[in-house]
Amino acid sequence: MGLTDIKERIAKAEREAGRPEGSVTLIAVSKVQPNERVRAVLEAGHRVYGENKVQEAAGKWPDFREAFDGVSVHLIGPLQSNKTRQAVQLFDAIHSVDRPKIAKAIARVAQEEGQCPDIFIQVNTGEEDQKAGVLPGETDGFVAECRALDLPVKGLMCIPPVDETPSLHFALLAKLAARNDLAGLSMGMSADFEEAIALGATHVRVGSAIFGERDYG
Questions:
Q1: Which DSSP helix (H) or strand (E) runs through 126?
Q2: Which of 106, 127, 136, 156 is surrounded by the most beta carbons within 10 Å?
Q3: Contact residues for 46 (Cβ-Cβ < 8 A; gap 6+)
Q4: Domain contains 109
Q5: 92 within a domain of the structure (yes/no)
């Protein structure tokens, strides 16, 4: 595996879905990866990365941005309201906006900072108790609420339940996005990104298949 292999698989999935090459953005998920692995992928020319935690990203990306041009960092993990200002300053996109409190905090800080990351709303497509995200039935209302706050809502994000067919969840997310005139679909990870691309994913999140297994020790 590795970056080249994943990019080739994405290009093939785009072709098979009849989509233009380059229509899918690969987010290389660099959370808990050692800096030397991240640097190697940066040196290979990749520029879009995903982080789960504001704190970890803050310790890593300012230095990398100085060393490499054109880096884009996306928050794909949950955001706590007390980390909102740091997140707005650090990230180019936030994929995990999932409740009014967070939306309002981002809107307020964005106003003060004069900048705002692209916003993706996380949808809990499996309606799982332990998982973040708005419920499918509440998505339209929440999209409207975020737009009323002047947030730049670009799309929707989901993480399907581990024990269910992901394509059902990808299709549901695509339907909800289309209904709300949203072009962005952040869906698909290492095991299922080809299925996600077939169903319209614009952003796929791939980590260990690019960097190697994570060491949580």
A1: none
A2: 156
A3: 3, 26, 28
A4: yes
A5: yes
Q: Which of 214, 215, 207 is nearest to 3 (CA)?
A: 207
* CA distance linking residue 78 with residue 122, whole number of Å: 10
CA dihedral of residues 200, 28, 4, 11 (deg, nearest 10): 10
Say whether pLDDT at 216 is over 70: no
217 domain-assigned:
no
Query: What average pLDDT does the segment 94-100 reach?
Result: 98
127: left (phi > 0), else alpha (psi -120 to 50), else beta? Answer: left
Tens digits of per-residue pLDDT, 25-58? 999 999 999 999 999 999 999 999 999 999 999 9
**Alpha carbons 62 and 60: distance in angstroms, whole number:** 6
| Amino acid, single-letter form, for residue 70 | G
CATH (domain of 95): 3.20.20.10
Residue-number span of the structural domain to which 137 is assigned:
3-211
Within a domain: residue 191? yes
What local confidence, expressed as pLDDT, does residue 195 receive? 97
According to the model, what pLDDT value does residue 78 have?
95
Residues 6+ apart with CB under 8 A from 61: 49, 51, 71, 73, 90
pLDDT greater than 80 at residue 215:
no
CB 165 within 8 A of CB 128: no
pTM for the whole structure: 0.96
